[in-house]
Design brief:
The complex is a heterodimer of chains A (14) and B (258). By secondary structure, chain A is mainly beta. Chain A is built from no helices and two strands. The radius of gyration of chain A is 9 Å and the shape is rod-shaped. The relative contact order of chain A is 0.28. In chain B, 14% of the residues lie in helices and 46% in strands. Classes of the chains: A mainly beta (14), B mainly beta (258). Chains A and B meet through strand 1 and strand 2 of A and strand 10 and strand 20 of B. Strand 2 of chain A pairs antiparallel with strand 10 of chain B.
C-alpha cells in the first residue's frame, strides 16, 4: 500500500 | 515605501506562471535585500519557495519590511497585459498596504499602463525548512526533466526515482505496463545545459506524484538546467536558478509504503 506523505511530517510549523 | 523596477517584465511573468497553479494566494515578503515567497499547495504535499534578490531589479527600494498578500490569479491577469520586454514597476505603501500598484512601461517609452491589485489576507502556515544533507544531487537540462515527467505521466500517476552510482532512473507503471528512462552522468561536457551530473553519496529510491512534478516544470522557461536533491528521509527538492539573483525551489513529500 502506497500513501502520500505530507510536508508537515518533515518540516516543522513555524 | 516599497518600489521595485524590473527591466524585463518577462521574468515576473515566468515566475508567476511557475507558482500560480500550485499556490493560489501567496505572501510576498519584501525586505531591503530581496523579495521572497513561500506557499504550500492546498493538500500540504508540495511547497514552493521563491527568492528574488534586490540586484535582479534596476531599482529597488524597501524602507520597511512589507508583506504583500497576492492572489496569483489576479496578478496573472495584470501581467498578461505585459510584453516580455516591458518594464514592470511594483509599488506599495509601507504599513499594512491593502493594495499594490503595478506600472507597465513599453521599451520605447511610448505606452504606460497602470493597475492596482487588491491585496488579500492570507492565514497560512509558514514551514521551517531545515538544512539538509542530501544523498544525491542530479543536475540536468530543465527541458529534458519536463519531457520525462510529461512522458511518464502517460503510464502512471507516480514516478520512482532511483539514483545509483552514475545513473538516475525514472520509472512509472500502470495499466499499460511499465516505462523506464535512465540518464547516465555525462562523460564529457560540451554544453553544460545539456549535460547530466549525478553527485551521489548514498543510493536513493523514492516515489513521487507526477501531478506535482508536472506543475513544478512550469518553471522550465526560467532556467536551462534544474537540480534535483534527494534523500531517503526528506522531501525532494527541485531547484531552478533565476540567473545569479535568486531561485525557485519546490519541495515534494514522497509517497510512502505503509
Amino acid at each position: 500500500m502506497v500513501n502520500q506523505a505530507y510536508l508537515g511530517e518533515y518540516f516543522g510549523d513555524q | 515605501m516599497f518600489e521595485a523596477k524590473l527591466q524585463q517584465g518577462g521574468l515576473l511573468k515566468k515566475i508567476l506562471e511557475s507558482v500560480k497553479d500550485l499556490v493560489v494566494d501567496g505572501l510576498w515578503d519584501c525586505d531591503g535585500a530581496a523579495i521572497t515567497l513561500q506557499g504550500m499547495d492546498s493538500s500540504h504535499v508540495a511547497l514552493v519557495e521563491m527568492l528574488l534578490r534586490a540586484e535582479a531589479f534596476e531599482h529597488y527600494r524597501c524602507d520597511r519590511n512589507v508583506t504583500l498578500g497576492m492572489n496569483h490569479n489576479h496578478l496573472s491577469k495584470i501581467l498578461k497585459c505585459a510584453n516580455n520586454d516591458d518594464i514592470v514597476i511594483l509599488k506599495a505603501a509601507d504599513q499594512n498596504p491593502d493594495s499594490c500598484s503595478l506600472i507597465l512601461e513599453s521599451k520605447n517609452g511610448e505606452k504606460t499602463s497602470d493597475f492596482v491589485v487588491s491585496l488579500v489576507r492570507i492565514d497560512t502556515d509558514q514551514l521551517g525548512i531545515p538544512e539538509t544533507e542530501y544523498s544525491a544531487h542530479v543536475k540536468m537540462s530543465s527541458g529534458e526533466f519536463q519531457r520525462i515527467c510529461r512522458d511518464l505521466s502517460q503510464f502512471g500517476d507516480a514516478v520512482q526515482i532511483t539514483c545509483s552510482k552514475q545513473d538516475v532512473k525514472f520509472s512509472s507503471s500502470g495499466e499499460t505496463g511499465k516505462a523506464n528512462i535512465t540518464l547516465t552522468h555525462s562523460a564529457t561536457v560540451d554544453k553544460e545545459e545539456e549535460s547530466v551530473t549525478v553527485d551521489l553519496k548514498e543510493p536513493v529510491d523514492l516515489t513521487f506524484a507526477l501531478r506535482f512534478l508536472n506543475l513544478f516544470t512550469k518553471a522550465t522557461p526560467i532556467s536551462d538546467t534544474v537540480t534535483l536533491s534527494l534523500s531517503q528521509e526528506a522531501p525532494l527538492v527541485v531547484e531552478y536558478k533565476i540567473g545569479d539573483s535568486g531561485h525557485i525551489r519546490y519541495f515534494l513529500a514522497p509517497k510512502i509504503q505503509e
